[in-house]
Amino acid sequence: MFKIADRHHGSLGSSDHAAALLEDLQFTLGEGPCIDAYEAGRSVSVPDLDDAAAHRWPALVPALIDTGIRAVFAFPLQLGTIRLGALDLHCGQPGDLRTQQYDDARIVAEVVTHALLELQAGTATGALAPELERAETLRIEVHQASGMVAAQLGVGVGEALVRLRAHAYAEGRPVDDVARDVIARKLRIE
Amino acid sequence: MPQRDALLAQTFVDIADTLVADFDVLDYLSVLTGRCVDLFDLSEAGIMLADTPGALHVAASSSERMGLLELFELQHDEGPCLECYRTGGQVACDDLAGASARWPVFAPEAMRAGFGSVFAVPLRLRDQIIGSLNLLRHQANDLAPSDLLIAQALADVATIGILQHRAADESRLLTEQLQYALNSRVVIEQAKGVVSEHTGRDMPDAFAALRSYAREHNARLVDVAEAVAARTLPAHAVVAGKPRHPPRR
To answer: Does the global pTM surpass 0.90?
Structure first.
């Protein structure tokens, strides 16, 4: 699920027919694990859709069970206040994710978040790899600079981060460096 | 030392007070680091958390000075916090001048920042280590065993706060709570940028303004930060009428 400025843009990609259906149904009915994960900023785990806890989506759950989905897990794609959407996982059997699977899914969500921001910044595919390697260690300065640029340009923090990265890419400098210049007020991003 | 005992008692009373509804985890951790500085006669303190195994990030600091935050963030790759996190044991270095072999990047950086000694105690839940409480001093001297004991107690209390009284039988819940805390930290950094740009305040002042506003309006720090970053709460409203350097609680 991918959202820009609170408008649900539908799915960015699905692994199979059931996954595509999961996205479509949530989009149509306006409820579901992806939407909850996105709005709450926390992962949502429903190991058994037959469970009482699943009745939070009264329209969605019967439809999902009909298509053969018995468990769903959603992970928000977020970076602080920047929210891009959510990553949905589903299973045809009831059962929880193992700890390793859960950790892996969270890491994938993080990598996808950074990849989406990179793509929006217009970086070439070849340039993605080093940034993604450092995805976990995005520096404090970058977050602060994102806030400053957002205020300077009157845009959302997500767009501000994209512009910072685009600027860094265009100049061939690490985004941390550009962020430091912004904070030191040596640089204003246009 | 009756004065220190009184402060310690007050600290635990205050902590008990904060462990109620509308709990504000980042403000809580921030207060904890401030209290550590007062209790142990330190120069600075910080709390690092790991939501992903092996990846330590700053969650709270006794000061929002950029240099200090960077020094904590450095420990993502090497340093007393990482050592503490990996071994699950306390780490003590009473003279950083002799620690260049142990921490070839961190030791010189810490000394450049004016620190002479450093200590770290683990944040632990049963057999899981979730982070570390980092204590820094300008002077190169030891931390008394009784102080380390109390620091460990405060670290344990920090862990409880992060878990918000919920039964943490599943490591899943713990991970979610840690992620929430660290993501909230990012929100606050983003909000600091917005406040700084709109008001001309520096980053530590911006943080102080956000925190004061949250307390005065009985709101959570992360919620105020979220509103400022989303621009539903104007930065000028947050700094209006507040002293430039509010006293630390």
So the answer is: no
Tell me the chain A residues in contact with residue B194 when contact means C-beta distances shorter than 8 Å.
Answer: 147-148, 150-151, 157
B223 located within any domain: no
> Is A108 part of the contact surface with chain B (CB cutoff 8 Å)?
no
Q: Does A43 touch chain B (CB under 8 A)?
A: yes
Minimum Cα–Cα distance from B191: chain A residue: A147
Percent of chain B with pLDDT over 70: 90
- Which residue did the predictor score with more confidence, A97 or A147? A147
Nearest CA in chain B to A156: B230
Pairing relationship of beta strands A82-91 and A71-79 according to DSSP bridges = antiparallel
CATH number at residue B57: 3.30.450.40
Q: Does some domain include residue B237?
A: no
Partner residue facing A42 (CB), from B52, B66, B176: B176
Contact: B229, A81; criterion CB under 8 Å: yes
**Total tally of structural domains belonging to chain B:** 1
With CB atoms and an 8 Å threshold, state whether A106 touches B175: yes
A82 contact residues in B (CB cutoff 8 A): 190
| Interior angle at CA B191, CA B65 and CA A177, nearest 5 | 60
Q: Which of A75-89, A105-119, B18-32, B235-249 holds the top average pLDDT?
A: A75-89
Whether B65 has its CB under 8 Å from any CB of chain A: the answer is no
Q: Which domain holds residue B66?
A: 2-166
* Residue A21 and residue A67 in contact, taking contact as beta carbons nearer than 8 Å: yes
Q: Which of A139-153, B55-69, B71-85, B173-187 has the lowest mean pLDDT?
A: B173-187
Euclidean distance between CA atoms B116 and B42, whole angstroms? 11
Query: What ipTM was reported for this prediction?
Result: 0.76
Q: Report which of B181, B189, B212 is spatially closest to residue B70, judged by C-alpha positions.
A: B189
- Domains, chain A, in order of start with CATH, read 3-97 (3.30.450), 125-183 (1.10.10)
**Whole-angstrom distance, CA of residue A164 vs CA of residue A162:** 5
Instruction: Name the residue among A41, A99, A149 with its Cβ closest to that of B183.
Output: A41
- Residue B116's contacts (CB-CB under 8 Å, 6 or more residues apart) are B95, B96, B97, B137, B138, B139, B140, B141
Average pLDDT of the residues in B35-51: 92
